[in-house]
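call fold target=IDEAL domain-containing protein
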Amino acid sequence: MKPTPYIAVKTFDHQVDCFCPDADHSEVITIQRGDILEITPERKYTVINGWYALVIINQSFSFYMAVEDIEWYFTKEQLISMLDVDLQINYYQFKINQALDEADEISFMNFTEKMNDSNEMKEKLQMYLRNVAV
C-alpha cells in the first residue's frame, strides 16, 4: 500500500509526541503551507494516546503523528488531498461563472483568487506525484 499524499494549505505548528522510555520531551515542528505530507500505512499504538501513523514531510522528515491529530487537521482543512483540490477548483469555477452571469465583480475577484490558490496547490501535488513515480 502506497502512502497517501496531502498538502498543507495553511502553515501550522504540530507538537510531535515522544516515544522515548522515561523521557518527557517533545518537539514542535512547523508545517509550512505547500508542504507535502505522506500518511503511510505504518502504524504504532500506545496505551495512553492510541494510534499513530508514520508521516513523511516533503520526502525528507518523518515522525509519528496521532491519527486523531491527522483527522483534526483534515476537519480544519489544514491538510487536503488531490480530490479535495479538484472539488475546490470545480466549485470555484462554478462560483466564477455565477459571478460573471450576475456581473458581480467582487465575487468574481474573490473566487478567482481562491481558484488560483487551489490551482497552485494542485500543481504542487501533481509535481510531487510525478517525482515519486520516477
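return ok
The chain has three helices and seven strands. The radius of gyration is 18 Å.
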